[in-house]
Amino acid sequence: MRLVPTAPSFIIRPLRAHRWMRAALAIAIGLAVGAALLLAAAWVYERTHASEHEVVFVIPRSDPYAPTVGSHTRTLPSVIELQMGQLDTVIIRNEDTQPVQFGPFKLEGGQVLHQRYQRAGSYDLECTASTHQELAQINVAPAAGDLWSMARAMMR
Question: Which three-class secondary structure state does DSSP give residue 58?
Fold first, then answer.
């Protein structure tokens, strides 16, 4: 019969407790790192997804008895400025009964157009809301710090 030396119990118990402490410490560190990563991701998301900004224009109901010769009321501004990083959206609401053409979009009476531009640049759109066809220019500036969009906009 062989005798196997065993350690006394006063040495084994602290080693077992040490394993539990090591596991608890590893879990605590993992939770702290996970919380830090989650906070960093929330911060990056907030910086890159700013609150939406809506630019709303309303085409009013036309007066059928108003004189059309020589009258000119501008429905849209000649220049609309948008920013890429702010998630700007142009909204045109046609409250008239007549259809209106705004660039490639045709709005029937009561329809609403929601247009968000995905690229920086300048867009010329013709609008038939008044007696004279208006030309609206939409300038979409690149997001601050978006070097790729700024370089593409400068090359146009």
Answer: strand
Structure tokens given for 93: 């609401």
Say which residues have a Cβ less than 8 Å from residue 97's Cβ, sequence separation at least 6. Answer: 61, 62, 109
Distance CA 69, CA 54 (A): 34
Let me know: does 91 contact 57? Beta carbons within 8 Å: yes
DSSP code at position 111: -
Total residue count of the chain as it appears in this document: 156
- Confidence category of residue 19, pLDDT binned at 50, 70, 90: confident
The 3-class SS string of 39-64 reads HHHHHHHHHHCCCCEEEEEEECCCCC
Q: Which of 133, 132, 139, 134 is nearest to 156 (CA)?
A: 139
Give me the chain's average pLDDT, please: 76
Confirm if 109 and 99 have CB atoms less than 8 A apart: yes
Q: What is the pTM assigned to this prediction?
A: 0.54
pLDDT in tens, 85-100: 667 888 889 888 888 8
